[in-house]
Structure formats: C-alpha cells, structure tokens
Write a structure and sequence with these properties.
This protein has 22 helices and 19 strands. With 731 residues, it is α/β, with parallel strands linked by helices.
Length: 731
C-alpha cells in the first residue's frame, strides 16, 4: 500500500472527523453551511481513494462520477459559508448561476461514455503508485476548471476584504488562516493544469489539508461560536461609532463607523488623537463639528469593582435635523390635503343636500295638503327614499368619523314594515331594464316594531341587494329575512341575499371588503360603483357586533348573509310587510302644527328661491310673518328697517356668505336685530360644523334638508314665550 492511498484514507478520516465535530455544535446558518462543505469534502476524498486503486475502467468511472457529484459543490458551499461568516449576504446570482452549470457538468460526466463534451477520450492507465485516467479535455472540462478557480479566487478575496475591515485580533487571526487555506485550494487547481502530476489529482489533497485545518479551528478555537460572531459583527457593522481606551486613554479599539465619523470632521492625525482623548471628559454631551451634530455617551469598563477602561459611543445625529425638516414639510402637506378634503366634502355636501332639501320640503307640503290616498302614498314613498338617501350621504360624507372609528350606533324604535317597504321600493328601481326577478321572502311572524339603528340596518341590506343587482344580468335576486328568538326581549334577525350572477372566485373573496376594490375590473367596466359598498356594510355590521359572510361559486352565483341582534319594541306579528305599510299610511294622523305665532316676525336669507318657498310653506299654518331675502346685502338692508324675532341665514351664498352677512349686520349701528337670535341654515354635513358656526356668532344651527318638527322646535326655543300660542284652547 503506497503513501497516496494511505494519505487518502487518512484524509477521509479527517473529513469525517470534521463532520462529527460540526454535528456537536448548536445548529445555525454558519454550522449548516460548514457541514455541507465537510460532507462534500468527504464525498470528494473517499471516492478518490477507491478511484486510485481501481483495477478496471467500469469501477474507475463509477468512482469518478461519484466524486464529481460532491466535488462540484465543495467550493459553492464553502463560499456561501465564508460570505455569512464575514458578515455579508451572498449574492443571489451565486447559486442561481453555479447550480445550473453544475447540473449540466454532472450530466456530461455521468454520460461521458456517450458524449465528447467533458472528455473527448479516456483510457485507464496504471503506474507504480495509482490507477489514473489518460484523457482528452472537452469544453465543459474547462468550464469546470474556470468555475473552481473562480470560486477559490472569490474565497480568497472575501477573506482578504473581511480581514481589512477587522480590528478584533482574535478574529483577525482566524481570517488570516482562512485566507491561507483559500490560497492553497487555488494553488492546487492551478498546479493540476500546469504541472505533470503523474495522474494524481491534487485538489482532493488540498481539500484534506483544508478540512484538517478547519477541524482544529472548530474544535479548539471556536471558529463557529455564534455568540462571539454576533458580538463581533454588531461591533463592526453598527452605524454608531465605538472607541475603547484603557485607563491611560490609550486607544485599544476603534470600529469602522467611528473611523468614518472622525475622518469626516478631522483630517490631521494629531488633532484626531486629541479629539479622541477629549471624548471621555464627560458622561453624556453633544458637540457640533463641521456641520456634524454628534452625541457622545461614555461608560466605564469594569473588572469587578475596578475600572479598567472606558467606552465611548458616538452617535451621528445630523440626520435628525434633516428629517425634522422633511417631517415639517410632510406635516404641512398633510394639513393642506386635509383642508382640501374638508373643502371637497363641504362642497359635495352642499351641492347634494340643497336639492334634496327642496324635494323633501315640497313633498312635506304635499303630505300636509293632499287628501287623496294615492297621492299621499306616492309622497310618502318619495319622503322615505329621500330620507334614506340623505342618511347614506350623511354617513359617507362624514369621513372624519369613519377615519377615526367613531361611527356611532343610534338605536331607536322603528316599524320594520316601513323599513322593508322602503328597501323594496328603492331596490326595485335599480332593476332597470334587466331580465331579473327581485323576490322578498319575509317571515310574517317577525315582530312589527324593533329597537335598533334603522338607518344603518337599512343601508346594510340595501347595499348588499344593490350589489347583487349590479352583478346579475338575468335570473333572480332573492332576499330572505327571518328571525330566531333569543329571549323575551331580543331576536336574532337573519338576513340573506342570494343571486344568480357571475359569482366570485375563491381567491378574490378576501378582496371583497377592501375599500375602493372592484373585482375583475376589466370585465365589469360597465358596472357602476365606487367599490365602497361592501366595505361600508362590513364596517357597520362590525360596529353592531355582526359580520357579513359570503358563499359563492364562480359562474353560478353568490349568497351574502348576516345575523343581527335586535331588541323587540312590540311582539305583534308584522304579517305581510307591504299590506301593513299601507295600513300604517291610512291610519296616519293628519298633520297639525304644534303651536301658532301670528305676532312672530322672521327673516329668512337664502340665494335659492325654492328653499325660501319651502321654508314659508312649512310654516304656512302657524300665522308667522316671514320676510325673505335672496342675498346678504338685501338682508342687511331689511334689518335696518324692521325688527325681527329670529334671523335664519343660509351659509353658502354668492358675494357674501352667511358668516359675513351676520358679521356686517352686527357691525351696522342701524341694525334693529343686534340682540336677536341668528340661526345658520346649511347643507354642511361634516363633523364639527355646528361648533364652528356657534363660534362665528350664531346661536344655533339647522341642517338642510330641514325637517318640519326640527324647524318648529327651533323656533319655539328661540321665540319669546309670549308670542307662542297653543293651536287649540285645551293644548
């Protein structure tokens, strides 16, 4: 047995010892990468032992193929280890490029008998020492050589770069050794190419030497001790400067960050030495040098009770001023954006609510004056639809409450048949010309009067039904409403909306409730909507301790449903909701004013003539004397000619708005109404509007569209008591 075989056998034992040594370590990324390197080393050396002793070509080739299966990956795993060990992350291309190349190389080696890409020819030879292969090298062989040389060179430069950065002597020595063994691996590969080695491959022997060195480093010198690695990397890689001195203020250690900071502010070495010594004068202080704002913190290094040195942390705080300025700019931009949003909401609120005020006001007069049953039923439907629309506008426009999570739930007693009838009338109108059947299946035994937030419940059901109608072109939309009794005062209202529309893909269901999210946008370009409907429903239901759920099959349809707890105000069964609604209309008492005030004098200022007609119409039977003005200028003139009991002033008017109008009135010495109550009339729907108007000098605030009862109550509060007369002697 010759010394080459003995060396390879001994080398296999060394590689196995390295594997065993690494197995005893705590698992970590470094130990895993080192383990892969050790396994690949063993897988390279051990087959080579049998390769050099092979007696026939078949056995020889088997050993060659097995050895290459590991040999090609030794350098890749070691390079990966070296990157992480030096505190760097290996580039993504490393594995993405090398692994595919190695797969191609292995394929050509495994089938080398049938292709000339790796070996152009080969023949088994024997000399006095070993069996070896006389071969011709194909193009892929030189690709393998280039890859190995390239990776070994990379390892050399990674170790050299890390060594240059290090200040800790112990770790520096480890990298010097790594640098040396990397050079030995590179040298063995180059010698294989340029020296006649009599058939001996020097690379496995280089791997044996490297494996032995690393086994000693791991076992005796804690090469892969994660705590020390972490400490060293934190010290080296932190962006804060660290300077360590002994009791005589001799510098023991200074990290790269401190060097960088000092080099930026001091160029002369003498000045730098003086600066470092002066660092330790105080425990904590701030200095400004060359436009650098540095915060210094000093602490003692102690061995027991004795101080053996000092450590100074240098924090570069210059960026704070920079980012503070940026934050102030962003804050200003945010405030402007918020103001723009508020202005937008105010404008939208006014533009939408002003015509609704006119519609509902005129409708109120129809209800008061008409005696015809059909006309009153039509007018009541207009009123309920308008009020529902108004309620939705109030909720959507008041974004300040939604964003702050302050959507208050306001429970009231409500007639469930009226709610359902309103829902039916509104949703039927959404069908348009679609070949679609809308079906309401309502349990007749549902209690007639419930206690809850009617407006929000109505909005939830309506949004879900409208959503079903939008995405269903033919077939049916079915609304099922039932209940289960919870206790003597509570029911669980069960609401389900089923459609035969396009359905929803399972992967899209989670997107349903995201704001401004519409599914399959290209497919549904002609479908109107903002993508807010279901998001609002879910948020409202969550506020009422419920949740909207969905079941859907793509291409067949969907079912949306929720269960909502409601208190019962009257257990009487509702029956047919449409019939009950008609009965309620027939039994509705005739409207009658709550008081009269023939001596009262009111001034109403509004640039919209219809609004003035509505205002006077709502108070027609009270006997009040009402003057109107179409502008602030006209109103300013009227208050100098006549004393009014109450001033009603619209907010948004051209040339002079309501606030300016009141201000000019109060400044006019000839004003006969200086101490009279002023009420702001406005379609402003945003939160905080009332407080803002009172701050500007108004006594109260009345939102458009005006409700008759609210208007009467406002007048009763502010009118002198002696002018308020009962509508009949027994009142």
């Amino acid at each position: 047995m010759n010394f080459i075989v003995i060396s390879l056998a001994f080398g296999s034992l060394i590689a196995f010892a390295e594997i065993f040594t690494i197995m005893r370590l705590e698992p970590s990324r470094n130990s895993v990468n080192m383990m892969l390197t050790a396994i690949c080393t063993f897988g390279t050396v051990f087959p080579y032992l049998f390769q050099v002793t092979a007696t026939n070509e078949e056995a020889f080739l088997i050993c060659v193929k097995l050895g290459y299966s590991f040999k090609l990956f030794v350098m890749l795993s070691f390079t990966t280890f070296l990157y992480y060990y030096s505190g760097e992350k290996p580039p993504r291309w490393l594995k993405n490029v090398i692994i595919p190349i190695n797969i191609i190389l292995l394929a050509s080696i495994y089938f080398c008998e049938y292709n000339p890409f790796y070996y152009t020819y080969f023949e088994l030879k024997h000399n006095e020492l070993i069996s070896y292969m006389e071969k011709g090298h194909g193009p892929l062989y030189f690709v393998m050589v280039f890859e190995m040389v390239f990776l070994m060179g990379m390892n050399f430069f990674i170790a050299a770069r890390a060594l240059k950065k290090l200040s800790v002597k112990k770790k520096k020595n480890k990298f010097i050794i790594i640098l040396a063994v990397s050079f030995i691996g590179l040298l063995s590969m180059l010698l294989n190419l340029v020296v006649d080695t009599r058939g001996v491959d020097l690379v496995p022997f280089a791997f044996i030497f490297i494996s032995g060195v690393f086994t000693i480093l791991i076992a005796k010198f804690d090469l892969i001790k994660e705590v020390d690695l972490a400490k060293n990397q934190i010290v080296e890689q932190t962006e804060d400067g660290i300077v360590v001195v002994n009791e005589d203020h001799d510098v023991l250690f200074i990290n790269d960050a401190a060097k960088g900071i000092l080099s930026e502010i001091i160029t002369d070495q003498t000045d730098k030495d003086v600066f470092i010594k002066n660092l330790f004068d105080k425990e904590e202080y701030v200095i400004n040098v060359n436009d650098k704002n540095l915060e210094i913190r000093v602490s003692d290094i102690k061995a027991g009770e004795k101080s053996v040195g000092h450590i100074a942390w240098i924090f570069d705080m210059t960026f704070i001023n920079k980012y503070t300025d940026q934050i102030l700019v962003l804050k200003d931009q945010a405030e402007k954006a918020n103001q723009a949003k508020s202005t937008f909401l105010s404008n939208v609120s006014h533009e939408i609510r002003t015509p609704i005020n006119a519609v509902l006001g005129m409708d109120e007069m129809i209800l008061r004056e008409s005696k015809e049953k059909n006309i009153r039923q039509y007018a009541r439907s207009i009123q309920e639809a308008g009020n529902t629309l108004l309620g939705i506008i109030n909720q959507i426009l008041d974004f300040s409450k939604i964003e702050a999570g302050k959507m208050d739930i306001i429970p009231v007693d409500y007639d469930f048949s009226t709610t359902l009838n309103d829902l039916y009338n509104i949703t039927v109108s959404r069908l348009g010309g679609k070949d679609l059947k809308l079906e309401f299946n309502v349990d007749r035994s549902v209690p007639s009067k419930l206690f809850g937030d009617e407006l929000r419940i109505k909005q939830c059901i309506m949004n879900v039904v409208n959503n079903a109608i939008k995405y269903t072109d033919e077939g049916m939309v079915k609304v099922d409403i039932g209940y289960t009794k919870k206790d003597d005062s509570t029911i669980i209202l069960n609401v389900s909306v089923t459609d035969t529309g396009m359905g929803i893909k399972q992967e899209d269901i989670d997107k349903l409730f995201a704001p401004f999210q519409r599914l399959e946008e290209k497919k549904n370009l002609t479908v109107e909507g903002t993508g807010l409907g279901l998001n609002i429903v879910q948020r409202l239901l969550l506020a009422m301790r419920s949740k909207l759920k969905v079941e859907s099959e793509y291409g067949k349809g969907s079912r949306f449903y929720f269960d909502l707890e409601q208190k019962v105000a009257d257990w009487e069964e509702m029956g047919d909701f449409r019939e009950r609604y008609r009965q309620n209309l027939e039994n509705e008492p005739e409207y009658k004013e709550s008081f009269r005030a023939p001596d009262a004098k009111l001034l109403v200022v509004d640039d919209n003539r219809v609004n003035l007609v509505v205002f006077k119409g709502l108070l027609k039977n009270t006997g009040m004397q009402i003057d109107t003005a179409l502008s602030g200028f006209e109103a300013q003139k009227l208050v100098t000619e006549k004393e009014y009991d109450i001033l009603f002033i619209d907010f948004r008017m051209p040339e002079m708005d309501g606030i300016e109008t009141l201000k000019h009135m109060m400044e006019d010495e000839n004003n006969k109404c200086k101490n009279k109550p002023a009420i702001m009339l406005t379609a402003e729907a945003t939160s905080g509007a009332r407080e803002g108007f009172i701050h500007e000098g108004f006594d109260d605030y009345l939102s458009k569209p005006m409700k008759s009862d609210d208007l009467m109550e406002m007048i009763r509060i502010h009118l002198p008591k002696e002018k308020v007369l009962p509508t009949s002697p027994d009142s």
